[in-house]
Structure to design on (326 residues):
């Protein structure tokens, strides 16, 4: 649902000039909702690391290919390919069908599908590298695992931030996305952090959550967006939410009922966002003129979420899809 909120806001913010010529404070509201929901993907990676790097979970290459990659492949084929082809047909109007199909399939193979689907391609890499990093993560003592995490944090988060905001740094220093770092951090927080009394304090994580939220809000309204070092505010926010959920031992019935459809919600919600924004031209900016965007954005989020859950429920009843457990 955090990802749905992210795209509800970014769908307008990322194409601001297409929807309004009024550069007013509403843009800051969209930016705030974006940055307060950016924890969604990192938290999913933290959860994935906690589960898949656990010694009890079978993550041999046989299991990786038979279970995990199989699911991603079908999701890419059934959902990502049609979405990519639809973009190709829109971008190549007037071209031959063969060229349009070639362009669409090529983009699909390269990972140039609808923006939200980048995550599926990233998961392929995470799954493939799991049997390589898991033996170290499981066998390492706390100190070695902490040193490894600090090294990954430096290489994949601090160095890129320094490079973007202070002085260019050559890529020879292994500048890379922080996905593996966050993935391994999830395992550490789940399996090792409980040994440290301070990490078991809800008060600590509530304070971290509040501080990260305040820093994010301040950064947005002073700069109209997050930039520079404040872009790292999502990191403590994601960790705080992950740890609070873990320490609270949430076991809600509604969550268990919603769980089977969440992957479908992730795959399908942009269909409704794009339909509303790009085709019907119904947006939080123009639909309810007398109501501020701070309220219309959550309203659209609720509508998109409900539609996506409904669509996921319907799709899950298709026998072929049901068999694949998408």
């Amino acid at each position: 649902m955090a990802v749905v909120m992210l795209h509800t806001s970014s769908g307008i913010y990322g194409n601001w000039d297409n929807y309004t010529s009024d550069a007013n404070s509403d843009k800051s509201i969209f930016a705030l909702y974006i940055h307060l929901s950016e924890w969604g993907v990192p938290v999913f990676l933290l959860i994935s690391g906690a589960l898949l790097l656990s010694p009890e979970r079978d993550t041999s290459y046989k299991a990786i290919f038979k279970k995990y990659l199989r699911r991603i492949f079908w999701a890419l084929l059934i959902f990502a390919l049609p979405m990519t082809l639809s973009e190709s047909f829109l971008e190549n109007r007037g071209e031959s069908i063969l060229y349009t199909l070639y362009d669409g399939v090529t983009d699909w193979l390269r990972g140039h599908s609808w923006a939200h689907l980048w995550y599926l391609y990233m998961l392929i890499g995470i799954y493939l590298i799991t049997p390589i990093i898991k033996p170290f993560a499981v066998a390492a003592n706390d100190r070695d695992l902490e040193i490894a995490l600090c090294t990954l944090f430096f290489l994949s988060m601090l160095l890129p931030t320094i490079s973007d905001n202070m002085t260019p740094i050559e890529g020879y220093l292994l500048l890379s996305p922080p996905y593996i770092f966050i993935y391994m951090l999830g395992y550490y927080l789940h399996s090792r952090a409980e040994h440290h009394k301070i990490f078991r304090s809800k008060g600590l994580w509530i304070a971290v959550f509040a501080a990260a939220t305040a820093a994010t809000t301040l950064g947005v309204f002073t700069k109209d967006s997050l930039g520079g070092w404040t872009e790292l505010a999502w990191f403590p926010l994601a960790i705080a939410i992950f740890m609070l959920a873990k320490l609270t031992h949430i076991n809600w019935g509604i969550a268990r009922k919603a769980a089977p459809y969440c992957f479908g919600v992730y795959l399908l919600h942009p269909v409704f966002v794009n339909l509303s924004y790009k085709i019907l031209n119904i947006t939080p900016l123009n639909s309810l003129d007398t109501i501020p965007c701070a309220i219309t954005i959550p309203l659209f989020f609720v509508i998109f979420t409900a539609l996506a859950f409904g669509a996921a429920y319907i799709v899950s009843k298709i026998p072929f899809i049901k068999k694949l457990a998408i």
The chain has a mean pLDDT of 87.
